[in-house]
Amino acid sequence: IHLKTVEFQNVYNPILKELKASNLLRRSAPSEYAASIFGDSVLAGKADPLFEARLMHQFCSSGAQVKATLENMNKEGGYERMRFEAQAELTLLTDALLDKIATMHDTKLMKLQEIISAYAQEKIVIFCIYKETAKELFQFLQKSFSQLNIGTTVDVKPEELENVLDYFAPIANDCITVDAEITEHTERILEKKIDILIASEAISEGFNLQDARILINYDLPWSVLQLAQRMGRLMRPWHEVRELLIFNFLPDTMFDKELKHGNAWRERLHRRNEEQQSFARLPVLMPNDNDAIRLEALGDVLQQFETVDLELNEAMDFIANATNVGTSSVLDDLARISADESERLLKLRAGFRSRIAKNLGDPALYLLIALRASVFPAVFDEKGALMLPPHEVSRPLELLRRRRDDEIYRDDFDPAALDAFQEKCLAAWLTSFGETREKVRVICALHFTA
To answer: What is the three-state SS of the chain?
Structure first.
């Protein structure tokens, strides 16, 4: 496995710097729109670290994503649950910035074109996070490589996704075999073959794509674990010995001294965790000691791979040990919530409960608890005691992440007994926080059963 870092000059750095220097990204006064989807309330006149982190990530993705981001900031209500303190001035600035980016040429696209030109005879998987980026890549590659069939998993209906994956990786998905006779079925599969697949994070786990040996991480995820999960799509059993190529696009934005959040940002996030703030303010990268670390740490990890070639056992060790980095994928999860899904979630009434068959050892109940303007996740063991420290807000979310093959628990249970157990757990949480029952409400509950 050859891990190659592709460093590129991000032409949108000056736009990002101008936005940050303008001091126009401050939140407006509290209102019904002041809270985020998870109840996080940022004080009026203050910058939102999570928003700024996501902004930097989006500006490293593509011109199309930068344009979409500026257009959202350009108008009141562009972000459904967020308002800016100086919207009129921000609108004027983003008008000017939109004019500027219209004349810019994305060097990142040129780097991608070079790689695909070098491997045009092979199947390639390109991972990106943002829909606008995926759409831009689809159009660009169709125009630049008209002789190739380009496919995408973005905006594909669930019932059609399986076909897309089969047309790209028919051998891996058991549609055809290497030495199969040509039949009407195999002809149909081969006629609709996909040479290059533009994939979203939704298929970074649980799907077989090993018909390809080349993977391009066009959008860098926030966590090394997610990089490992993407690599795992290709590192599956195959009928012959071969070499895999993994290209990781690394923007110079990560190392620009004017754009680093630095130690002050790191300490501010850590302090807010200690102050029991909402989990929407989670650091985007978490080492094992649960201190926030700077965004550039991911770039530091990838730079170590610049000239590294790994044997299969070394690569498997890397994937197996990736969880030791202790990364949090919450930011990517938030980024993938569509406007429709966000609206649907916001309409759900508080108090709903569910059950899941998931063997996590001791955990018995998860509660999402609202206290004033903040929201807290908590996991309790079978005796009703808090499993994690009250201020720990990352690991409960990691425990909750479902895999596609997780079983849905359908057996009957006693609602009254669950009510009593839930109140017992909530009492333990209230004791830890020094709060009273009338000040909190339970947004939802999830009961784990082996």
So the answer is: CEEEEEEECCCCHHHHHHHHHHCCCCECCCCCCCECCCCCECCCCCCCHHHHHHHHHHHCCCHHHHHHHHHHHHCCCCCCCCCECCHHHHHHHHHHHHHHHCCCCCHHHHHHHHHHHHCCCCCEEEECCCHHHHHHHHHHHHHHCCCCCEEECCCCCHHHHHHHHHHHCCCCCCCCCCCCCCCHHHHHHHHCCCCEEEECHHHCCCCCCCCCCEEEECCCCCCHHHHHHHHHCCCCCCCCCCCCEEEEEEEHHHHCCCCCCHHHHHHHHHHHHHCCCCHHHCCCCCCCCCCCCCCHHHHHHHHCCCCEECCHHHHHHHHHHHHHHCCCCHHHHHHCCCHHHHHHHHHCCCCEEEEEECCCCCEEEEEEEEECCEEEEEEEECCCCECCCCCCCCHHHHHHCCCCCCEECCCCCCHHHHHHHHHHHHHHHHHHHCCCHHHEEEEEEEEEEC
